[in-house]
Write a structure and sequence with these properties.
The complex is a heterodimer of chains A (about 325) and B (about 350). With about 325 residues, chain A is an all-alpha fold. Chain A has 14 helices and 2 strands. Chain B has about 350 residues and is an alpha/beta fold. In chain B, β9 and β10 form a beta hairpin. Chain B starts with a helix and ends with a helix. Classes of the chains: A mainly alpha (about 325), B alpha/beta (about 350). The interface between A and B is medium-sized, with 34 and 35 residues.
């Protein structure tokens, strides 16, 4: 209080204070932006409520059995989510396994090693790729990727690593692996573009310090710059993962749409988003429609769980980094 | 000043025009995608007959059409399969089924080295889709195709992944010819397929078949005709092998006419009759039996009468099989039930 000698009058309180701030405009701006922020919360809550309330039939009929059953039979009215959860998770994991090393590697090159002219040209094309509608990727996958996988990639994998159950079995060209590869192609632009931004944000001093200590250019990049930008890189990976989990058109065109759980990555599968897109418009019984809605809720929860795990991972690495 | 008076004049003229012009009747309908091309043409052409009748059609799919119709969102619905008793039970006034045109389903395949049209028996087809006939040179297939050199290759089965009236008719047919299919799989717009790759839509199934060697799939006849795809013969209930065309599909309905139930809710797959193609289906308009608005009632009944006579002439040109005369006559009588 001793420092407040410059204050000529006691600060106004209560309603008068609000009025004053309203007149200043600060309060108006605060309230308006608060309302905007609340819309996000409202949409999320509304979405969950809607999914929950329109899936009452299967929730009561199957309970938690919905999450453990592999049956999906619209004729007999038995519905279970396992093959779809499996397909969604497996294809997204394949996508990340391929896209993360490629994407982060490309981002390091563009941000750290490439001359600026090349870097900006490449970045332009990458951002172009991010804007391509997914159905175009689906067509590309169906007409170009499927024959490639069927005739070259999958036979090669079976020949070299066929002793592993994941690389054995009949080859169709469609299936988990093909879906995973197209998802990797689709998530790559996001990972490259955001990781590059994050790497460019790293202060020059960070690099100079490493170089001054006698590090080579690569050592400085790998040991000083990349760890500094890791939060941004993680963020790009999760954005890519979110796209992979929810991708519908491209996946349904190449995954084979077979609601079973298969060990082999060459086998046909199904994803949550794909079955909703496929069966919703022609589902005839209420139980069938509501089971599809319930699958939507499962996908929503799956996304939340994966995002929460990602957050934990970030917190864990951040702590390790600072200690 | 001058400008504003001009505006006023224009507004006045518009008001007079609106008052003089007869009230247009706006009718909303929704349902099956399969007949959408011909419905679009019909609803447009009918405005030439009755300028006041404006019918909007959304092709949301049969299931969606039935749902929107039963919720009262649209004035009438359209579906590739008849409504079930359970669905009808939700209505206060029983809805009426009006078959409009017919469609057929054919088998397309891609076997390298085989150029002849293959012949399929119902047993072979059920065996393939049950996953029991695994190879193209299975005895069941070679027996029906003497002279064709079928390879010793695994059959890749393709089916629709999206729920569809086409799948309903196809599985309905398999249920009729194979007791095993009936007990194991059954019939619906989507079923639990024992084997096979799911393709989205006719184009998805076609894509899988064209791209995958030694594959087989089923598509709508109209689609196969438009795309000039090869398709096989199928043995009908009378024991003759038929290659589907519009005539043999219409014949299936004519054969069913003798035993037609009053509400037209009937499956016309596997009909007797030497010339009847076995996988055929009606597609329906679902009309409420009680229409309160007299203007709407006049427009809808007027359209139905026109559709059963003049409208049928448009069918063949768009690849749909027209209704046989005896069925159209039975439907004319049903119009009187709309109150």
């Amino acid at each position: 209080m001793a420092t407040s000698v410059r204050m000529s009058a006691p600060p106004p309180t209560g309603a008068r204070a609000l009025l004053l701030r309203l007149r200043n405009g600060d309060e108006v701006a605060r309230l308006i932006t608060l309302a905007f922020a609340c819309i996000i919360l409202l949409v999320t809550v509304g979405l969950i409520y809607q999914l929950w309330s329109t899936s009452a039939l299967p929730r009561h009929k199957f309970g938690f059995g919905f999450l453990t059953s592999s049956q999906w039979n619209p004729v007999t009215g038995e519905f279970g989510a396992v093959p779809f959860i499996y397909g969604t998770v497996v294809t997204s994991l394949i996508a990340l396994l391929i896209a993360v090393p490629l994407g982060v590697g490309a981002a390091i090159f563009l941000a750290e090693l490439a001359p600026p002219r090349i870097s900006s040209t490449f970045t332009f094309f990458i951002e172009l790729l991010a804007a391509v509608p997914s159905v175009i990727y689906g067509l590309l996958a169906f007409f170009a990727l499927v024959p490639l996988m069927r005739d070259y990639v999958e036979p090669f994998l079976r020949k070299t690593m066929g002793f592993l159950p994941v690389f054995s079995g009949t080859i169709f060209g469609l299936g988990y692996l093909t879906a995973g590869v197209i998802l990797a192609i689709m998530t790559l632009p996001f990972i490259i573009s955001i990781s590059r931004e994050a790497l460019l944000e790293v202060p020059t001093e960070q690099r100079e310090a490493a170089l001054a200590l006698g590090a080579t250019r690569w050592e400085s990049t790998w040991q000083a710059v990349v760890p500094y930008a890791r939060l941004g890189i993680f963020g790009s990976v999760f954005l890519g993962l979110a796209r992979a989990l929810g991708e519908t058109m491209a996946v349904t065109m190449v995954i084979g749409n077979d609601p079973k759980v298969h060990e082999s990555m060459f086998a046909l599968g199904y994803s949550i988003a794909a079955i909703i897109a496929n069966e919703f418009s022609e589902a005839t019984t209420d139980l069938h429609v509501q089971s599809l809605v319930l699958l939507g809720l499962v996908l929503f929860l799956l996304t939340i769980v994966i995002n929460a795990l990602a957050r934990l991972l970030i917190i864990a690495t951040a702590r390790r980094g600072s200690s | 000043m001058k400008k504003s008076s001009l505006w006023l004049g224009a507004l006045g003229a518009l008001a007079i025009l609106l008052a003089v012009a007869p009230a247009k009747v706006l009718i909303n309908a929704a349902g099956a995608t399969f007949p959408y091309p011909i419905y679009g043409k019909w609803f447009q052409e009918y405005t030439k007959v009755d300028a006041d009748a404006q019918i909007n059609y959304q092709s949301v799919g049969s299931g969606g059409g039935i749902r929107m119709f039963s919720e009262g969102t649209v004035d009438f619905g359209a579906s590739d399969m008849p409504m079930t008793d359970e669905q009808i039970g939700k209505f206060k006034a029983k809805p009426l089924h009006f078959p409009t045109v017919l469609g057929g389903i054919v088998l397309t395949y891609n076997i390298p080295g085989v150029t002849q049209d293959l012949k399929f028996t119902p047993e072979a087809l059920a065996g393939i889709y049950l996953g029991k006939i695994k190879k193209w040179n299975d005895a069941e297939l070679t027996k029906a195709n003497p002279g064709v050199k079928l390879p010793d290759a695994d059959i890749v089965v393709a089916h629709r992944s999206d729920g569809s009236g086409t799948s309903f008719v196809f599985t309905d047919y398999l249920s009729k010819v194979s007791p095993e299919w009936k007990s194991k799989v059954g019939s619906s717009t989507s079923v639990q397929w024992p084997v096979g790759i799911g393709g989205k839509g006719n184009e998805g199934v076609t894509g899988v078949v064209k791209q995958t060697p030694n594959s087989i799939g089923y598509v709508e006849l109209i689609y196969a005709l438009q795309q000039k795809m090869p398709y096989g013969y199928l043995r009908n209930a009378a024991g003759t092998f038929l290659k589907a065309d519009l005539e043999s599909v219409t014949e299936a309905a004519a054969a069913a006419a003798q035993s037609m139930p009053a509400d037209f809710r009937v499956s016309i797959t596997n009909q007797p009759g030497k010339k009847a193609y076995p996988i055929a289906t009606f597609t329906y308009l679902l009309i409420p039996s009680k229409i309160d608005d007299p203007a709407k009632k006049k427009a809808i009944t007027g359209f139905l009468r026109w559709m059963l006579k003049d409208g049928q002439n448009d069918a063949a040109g768009l690849g749909y099989a027209p209704l046989p005369k005896n069925v159209a006559a039975q439907e004319e009588k049903q119009i009187a039930l709309i109150k």
